[in-house]
Amino acid sequence: MTTIEIPRPVVGDVVELIINDHRFFESLLRALRDASADRGAAREALSHALIAHGEAEESEVYPKLARKDAISGQEEHHGKKEHAKGNAALLALLECKGTSTQKFDDAVEELATALNHHIGEEEQTILNGARNDVPDATRRDLGQSWAARRNQLLDEGCGDIEKVREIVASEAELLQESESQ
Ligand SMILES: [Fe+2]
Ligand SMILES: [Fe+2]
């Protein structure tokens, strides 16, 4: 299996950095649907990139935007719930033994549904809050702290299956909330 390199920016506007990662997820989802692609490598890259991205948003971006009233506490909470859904779907994909089975294809579709929904909604709500209500210099500061946290998580192997299991277990309550809606 080859390894797909995950981009590791260190500076930039937080909105642009986050959107670039969303585009990267979409390209990996496309590879996961492609029988001629190295789907094992795409799955591994997506796991690390997605966990690092979402965890860094939750610790470095969402709370700071909420404090600046660029997003509401409810939007912040909703974003976390959607991360929990995506992480659970990611874990189901990681648990698949083979990469050319119906089970794998179904898990890819589940993950794509959760991710595409959250990516679209985040760009339409949370990121517009940052675009409209946060000055450029602050967006760069947020970009730097998000990127630093994300790179640290990547260094720690945040997308290894045992780590993803722990994260999903810690988000059980959030997941239950979204299932009861
Ligand atoms: Fe995001
Ligand atoms: Fe997010």
UniProtKB/TrEMBL annotation:
Sequence intervals crossing the membrane: none
Domain of life: Bacteria
Domain Hemerythrin-like as annotated: residue spans: 14-127
Matches recorded under Pfam families: Hemerythrin
Native species: Raineyella fluvialis
Name listed for the protein in its UniProt record: Cation-binding protein
